[in-house]
């Protein structure tokens, strides 16, 4: 079915209306840490503020950006996602237009 976003999610989305479809573009920062490494106080504060997602269990420390584009069409939710793809919202919308 179609995805419905919360007010908090909508507040951080870039919404773009194109060809009768509303697209929701998100970028999220992730920090992957080995189990024996602790995040810094700044990183914990960013996590508390909702601007950083921290995950444990990685082989090495990694910082990545997660890009996602969501849209509803014909009652179905669609999404394109990727880590460190460095694509603009318009780049992803152009790619979405190729999905039939």
Keywords:
single chain; 100 residues; alpha+beta; 5-stranded mixed β-sheet; 3 helices; 42% strand
Q: What is the count of DSSP helices, taking H or I runs of 4+ residues?
A: 3
Task: Specify the biggest β-sheet.
Answer: 5 strands, mixed
State the shape: elongated
Q: Can you give the mean pLDDT?
A: 94
Gyration radius (Cα, Å) is: 16 Å
SSE sequence, one letter per element: HEEHEEEH
Structural class: alpha+beta
- Percent of residues in β-strands: 35-45%
> What separation lies between the terminal Cα atoms?
17 Å
List low-confidence stretches.
none
Q: What proportion of the residues is helical, as a percent range?
A: 10-25%
The count of DSSP E runs of length 2 or more, i.e. the number of strands, is 5
Question: Which helices and strands occur, and which strands form pairs?
Answer:
Elements: H1 7-12, E1 14-18, E2 21-33, H2 41-49, E3 53-56, E4 62-73, E5 76-83, H3 89-96
Parallel strand pairs: 2-3
Antiparallel strand pairs: 1-2, 2-4, 4-5
Word description of this protein:
This protein has 100 residues and is α+β, with helices and mostly antiparallel strands. 23% of the residues lie in helices and 42% in strands. The protein is built from three helices and five strands, in the order H-E-E-H-E-E-E-H. The protein has helices at 7-12, 41-49, 89-96, and strands at 14-18, 21-33, 53-56, 62-73, 76-83. Strands 1, 2, 3, 4 and 5 form a five-stranded mixed sheet that branches. Helix 2 (41-49) links the parallel strand 2 and strand 3. The radius of gyration is 16 Å and the shape is elongated. The chain starts with 6 loop residues before the first helix and ends with a helix. The model has no long low-confidence stretch (mean pLDDT 94).
């Amino acid at each position: 079915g179609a995805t419905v976003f919360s007010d908090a999610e909508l507040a951080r989305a870039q919404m773009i209306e194109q060809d009768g479809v509303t697209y929701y573009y998100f970028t999220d920062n992730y920090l992957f840490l080995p189990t024996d490494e602790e995040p810094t106080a700044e990183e914990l504060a960013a996590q508390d503020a909702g601007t950083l997602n921290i995950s444990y269990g990685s082989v090495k420390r990694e910082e990545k950006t997660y890009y996602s584009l969501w849209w509803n069409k014909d009652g179905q939710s669609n999404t394109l996602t990727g880590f460190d793809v460095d694509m603009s919202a318009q780049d992803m919308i152009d790619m979405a237009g190729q999905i039939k």
